[in-house]
Amino acid sequence: MNTESFFEKIYGEIYNYVADANMWVSIGMTLLKIVGIIIASRIVVSLVQTAVNRVFQHRQGAKIHLDQRRVDTMRVLVNNIVQYTLYFLAILMILQLVGIDLKPVLVSAGVLGLAVGFGAQSLVRDIITGFFIIFEDQFAVGDVVTINNMTGTVQEIGLRITRVRSWTGEVHIFPNGTITQVTNFSLQNTLAVVDVSVAYEENLGQVEEVLKEVLAKAQTELDDIVAEPQILGVHALGPSEVVMRVTAECKPNTHHGVNRNLRAMIRTEFTKRGIQIPYPKIVTMSGKAQGQA
């Protein structure tokens, strides 16, 4: 066979292959099916996520009341799981359409997953711990927490890591598997505690009346106070002062601001009423006075 006849044969085979109408129809049908699978998967994901959002929607007057923080966290988690699952199934269907046998792929994926599981035990532990953090609502985005002796505001909760921003701006990243102890300051109401020092010369009855007026005013002006402030009475007797303690129940993690506002309001009212803030006093006696005594 000479060179010319060889190229003619190759050309004929290519021409017959390209001119095969059935092949192009098959390719076109396959492409249409792939496009249909992609469009259908996106539509199904959108519909399912809409249904999930509606299920987790906050309803006024519902018989079962759930914490909205937990509802929002679970809604995002369920939407992500639905999205990844449906897209994974769509990829498997596309692979099957293009003629790839799924059995070896799934077996290889299982063996690879087992190998990765043994080699990345810390990663698996992080993911499992992250799932239980979200599922049990230990803390949520925006909560003020102390994690492993580090205090800050939660910026992000993932299945693998948690980001916490301290009040000075540093961002701390914790692998979920290393989180051994969490203190959440945002779940329950907090208590503002203010110790008020007055001089021994002051009338404690008058001081209590002034404090009652200040606390009543604070309850109406400070939105973070959720219950009537209390005067606990004399807390301590110092070298030059009597310490009286007042408390106020506040919204979660707002007690620091309430403390500052109460101190300012009490100081202003004491100045108006002439109530003295204690200060150290020194009594000196001359030698002549001692001799006369």
Automatic annotation (TrEMBL):
The keyword Cell membrane applies. Pfam families: MS_channel_1st, MS_channel_2nd. The chain crosses the membrane at residues 34-56, 77-99, 105-124. GO terms for molecular function: mechanosensitive monoatomic ion channel activity. Residues 80-121 form the Mechanosensitive ion channel transmembrane helices 2/3 domain. It is a multi-pass membrane protein. GO terms for cellular component: plasma membrane. It is found in: Cell membrane. Gene3D superfamilies: 1.10.287.1260, 2.30.30.60, 3.30.70.100. Residues 123-186 form the Mechanosensitive ion channel MscS domain. The keyword Protein biosynthesis does not apply. Keywords: Cell membrane, Membrane, Transmembrane, Transmembrane helix. Its main location: membrane. Belongs to the MscS (TC 1.A.23) family. PANTHER family: MODERATE CONDUCTANCE MECHANOSENSITIVE CHANNEL YBIO (PTHR30460). May play a role in resistance to osmotic downshock. This is Mechanosensitive ion channel protein MscS. It comes from Brevibacillus parabrevis.
